[in-house]
From TrEMBL:
InterPro entries: YknX-like_C. It comes from the Bacteria. It comes from Hungatella hathewayi WAL-18680. Residues 341-409 form the YknX-like C-terminal permuted SH3-like domain. GO terms for cellular component: efflux pump complex. This is YknX-like C-terminal permuted SH3-like domain-containing protein. Residues 103-130, 169-215 form a coiled coil. It holds the Pfam family YknX_C. The chain crosses the membrane at residues 18-37. Keywords: Coiled coil, Membrane, Transmembrane, Transmembrane helix. GO terms for molecular function: efflux transmembrane transporter activity.
């Protein structure tokens, strides 16, 4: 009897073990199924038309548009220099005092200022007088610019149709660029700023000549207008010769910002484009692109690599009161590589045989779709074929370990 009971107990244990093993297997099967069926949480992006652009911040230097170079009217030693560069002075205040040598040198200095005054007046009359050349030169340059622009636009259409070669289009582009630079130069020459520059130059010569003619000892070099000392060249006690520059001054109200940009960045700027400037005191204000040089030069980067750079000038809308010549500022520009295009993050592009692809969300799953790519800028890639606006793509399939057919859901 005892043996039969023991046998039945063993069979029961085996039965329970089989049941338990079946339960464990079922749990693993369910867990695996859940893991397979559970969608991967990924970052999704809806494809839309827009500009392919990037933001660039460069360092620029605040520079006066117009400055005046003051020269010694005679030779002698600098006896007194009460101010230093950066000092704001009123008209008539002394910049420095020099020793006086002879009456003959005084008269020579007067004659030299008379000649400089006459030359400045003649230049002003030739440009802005009743028969001045500046307005006519501007009109001619504008006409050439409009013609070159029209020819280039027509050339682009012809090139797109295959009627002219790329070389012929490049010739038209070069003519357009030269005409634009000539127009900008003529505009600057005929500008109110240039007119004001010559008026101030004439006034400066007249004031200095008046000073020389009214005093017996012309040892003091005075401020011809309210302004700021930009640079002082001699040291106190130093001997200077007649007509040697001793100081540079400027009026603080009229400034520009100069910056050196890589050529590939500079060519994306357009005249009149708005940029943002951060000054040393933290003030942020707008500025306009005023000039992009057509000439570039080779420079060495901070790591010793050769770079091709060109000068760009910006016209600030407003300059803080304490900002002066030589102050460093940060200029932030938006560079547009292409407008009204479809684009995706660079991280969305997957290399495939024959080109590139992206994962598109279709029916809750990621489907690999081959695409054609174009320009790249700011961490994004232009899509020229393979996608439509409003398609939803996986922004970073590598990060999310997405494969073709993976079930996905947005984060």
């Amino acid at each position: 009897m005892g043996k039969r009971i023991a046998g039945k107990g063993g069979e029961m244990k085996k039965k329970y073990k089989y049941i338990l093993a079946g339960v464990v297997v079922a749990v693993f099967v369910v867990a695996a199924a859940v893991g397979i069926l559970k969608p991967i949480a990924v970052e999704l992006e809806t494809v839309a038309n827009g500009s392919l652009e990037t933001e660039l911040t460069v360092q620029g230097t605040l520079t006066p548009i117009h400055s005046t170079l003051l020269s010694a009217g005679f030779q002698g030693a600098v006896r007194e220099m009460p101010h230093q560069a950066g000092t704001a002075l009123k008209q008539g205040e002394m910049i420095l005092r020099m020793g006086y040598e002879s009456q003959a040198e005084l008269e020579l200095s007067r004659e030299q200022y008379r000649q400089q005054l006459t030359s400045a007046k003649q230049t002003y009359e030739n440009l802005f007088g009743d028969h001045g050349s500046a307005p006519a030169a501007l009109a001619a340059a504008q006409s050439d610019y409009e013609l070159a622009r029209k020819n280039y636009e027509n050339g682009r259409a012809l090139a797109a149709a295959g009627s002219i070669s790329q070389i012929e289009l490049d010739v038209l582009a070069n003519q357009y660029s030269k005409a634009e630079q000539a127009f900008n130069q003529a505009s600057e020459t005929n500008s109110e700023g240039n007119r004001k520059y010559y008026e101030e130059l004439i006034a400066s010569y007249e004031k200095q000549l008046e000073t020389l003619e009214q005093v017996a000892n012309p040892g003091e070099i005075l401020m011809p207008y309210d302004g700021v000392i930009w640079e002082l060249y001699p040291a106190q006690g130093q001997y200077v010769t007649a007509n040697e520059p001793v100081a540079k001054i400027y009026q603080p109200g009229d400034m520009k910002i100069q910056a050196s940009l890589l050529t590939e960045d500079a060519v994306r700027l357009t005249q009149g484009q708005t940029v943002f400037v951060r000054y040393a005191d933290g003030t942020v204000a707008e500025a306009k692109v005023e000039f992009v040089s057509a000439v570039a030069g080779q420079t060495l980067s901070t790591i010793g690599m050769e770079e091709n750079r060109c000068q760009v000038e910006f016209k600030p809308e407003k300059v803080p009161e304490l900002a002066g010549a030589g102050h460093q500022v940060d200029v932030t520009c938006t560079l547009v590589a292409a407008e009204n295009v479809l684009s995706v993050p660079s991280s969305a592009i997957v290399p495939v045989t024959g080109g590139s692809a992206v994962y598109v969300k279709k029916g809750g799953k990621a489907r690999l779709v081959q695409v054609e790519t174009g320009k790249k800028s700011g961490g994004r890639v232009e899509i020229t074929g393979g996608l439509l606006e409003h398609d939803v793509i996986v922004a970073d399939p590598y990060e999310d370990h997405v494969k073709d057919g993976s079930r996905i859901t947005g984060m």
